[in-house]
């Protein structure tokens, strides 16, 4: 069971109730999910009638898409986040922060020693930790690590049976920078998480993948249990991962939208950090900005611990204009 105290984006119903604005009148920029999802095809009736079948084409299609054979389909990368801490004996785990809060929560819950470290401090901790965990590009601050850097860290960790865990939930738009392209040369102690939800806009079907050594995959598969990935999720995941034309179009769309958002926000704020899915900034009036936008029906993500805000991508020019108009009022 997840920790209900951890705040996530996407809680739009809560916002609608709090600010007394009908759900359909909101622009939800609180997540990093693409605002233009893959168009769901009609699902055949047999998909609803039969139990999920692990010998369908999903795994083969995913192996081709991710350029990696050592994969396990899971019911969203959250399953891997919850399960991985129970695949190791008590360890010293360094987690690059700020980060997605579910990661440290589950390692601490499993009894491990968790160290919150900055991106600049990784090198000094490598000799003394058993696990290094990071998100690439990072959620929420967009920090990006190069393949060369991660390969060097992997070599240092694997030399003493350590793990490098990389959550690549936001990697699909820059797949050439994925560690999965080099996985065959890093098979021992490298764990990579991938998500269907962000790039394909299919968060609701709860489908993800984990790449890891076979003994780790076997443990997670046992903890996940039978039929964990629903038949509709397997069917739609296979279709989406095969749709190369849509994937290329969406990569272009994300690049263009993120550039537009960066330009817009830079008119009002300094030091806007950007990846293809969202923009992040620290501001002394972050909480007030969040409330002012919410009063206008625009929902963004506020991070209380470091007084920062994150903006997902508007879907179209109308949403960009509405956001710009709100800022013009707030900062007039």
Structural account:
This protein has 332 residues and is α/β, with parallel strands linked by helices. The chain has two domains: 12-38 and 245-330, Aspartate Aminotransferase, domain 1, CATH 3.90.1150; 64-229, 3-Layer(aba) Sandwich (Aspartate Aminotransferase, domain 2). 38% of the residues lie in helices and 16% in strands. It is built from 13 helices and 13 strands. It has helices at 12-19, 45-49, 58-66, 77-83, 102-109, 122-125, 147-158, 197-200, 214-224, 231-242, 244-266, 286-295, 317-330; strands at residues 27-28, 71-74, 92-96, 113-117, 131-135, 163-167, 190-195, 208-211, 273-274, 278-282, 298-299, 301-303, 308-312. It has a seven-stranded mixed sheet, sandwiched between helices. A four-stranded antiparallel sheet has the order 9-10-13-12, with helices on one face. A hairpin with a 3-residue loop joins strand 9 and strand 10 (278-282). Helix 3 (58-66) packs parallel to helix 10.
């Amino acid at each position: 069971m997840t920790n209900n105290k951890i705040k996530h984006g996407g809680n739009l119903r809560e916002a609608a109730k709090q600010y007394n604005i009908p759900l359909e009148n909101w622009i939800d920029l609180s997540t990093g999910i693409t605002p233009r999802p893959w168009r769901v095809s009609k699902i055949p009736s047999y998909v609803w009638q039969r139990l999920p079948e692990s010998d369908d084409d999903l795994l083969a299609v995913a192996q081709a898409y991710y350029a990696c054979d050592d994969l396990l389909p899971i019911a969203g990368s959250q399953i891997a986040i919850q399960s991985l801490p129970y695949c190791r004996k008590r360890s010293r785990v360094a987690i690059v922060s700020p980060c997605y809060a579910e990661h440290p929560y589950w390692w601490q819950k499993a009894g491990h020693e968790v160290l919150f470290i900055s991106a600049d401090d990784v090198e000094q901790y490598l000799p003394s930790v058993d696990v290094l965990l990071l998100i690439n590009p990072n959620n929420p601050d967009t920090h990006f690590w190069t393949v060369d850097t991660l390969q060097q860290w992997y070599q240092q960790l694997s030399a003493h049976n350590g793990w490098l865990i990389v959550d690549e939930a936001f990697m699909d738009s820059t797949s050439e920078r994925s560690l999965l392209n080099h996985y065959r040369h890093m098979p021992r102690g490298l764990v990579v998480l991938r998500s269907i939800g962000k790039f394909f806009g299919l968060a609701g079907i709860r489908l993800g993948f984990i790449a890891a050594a076979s003994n780790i995959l076997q443990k997670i598969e046992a903890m996940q249990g039978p039929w964990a990935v629903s038949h509709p999720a397997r069917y739609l995941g296979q279709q989406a991962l095969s749709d190369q034309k849509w994937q290329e179009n969406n990569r272009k769309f994300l690049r263009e939208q993120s550039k537009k958002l960066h330009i817009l926000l830079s008119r009002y704020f300094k030091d806007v950090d950007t990846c293809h899915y969202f923009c992040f900034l620290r501001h002394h009036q972050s909480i007030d900005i969040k409330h002012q936008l919410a009063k206008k029906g625009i929902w963004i993500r506020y991070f209380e611990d470091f007084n920062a805000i994150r903006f997902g991508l508007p879907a179209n020019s109308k949403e960009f204009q509405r956001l710009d108009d709100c800022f013009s009022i707030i900062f007039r």
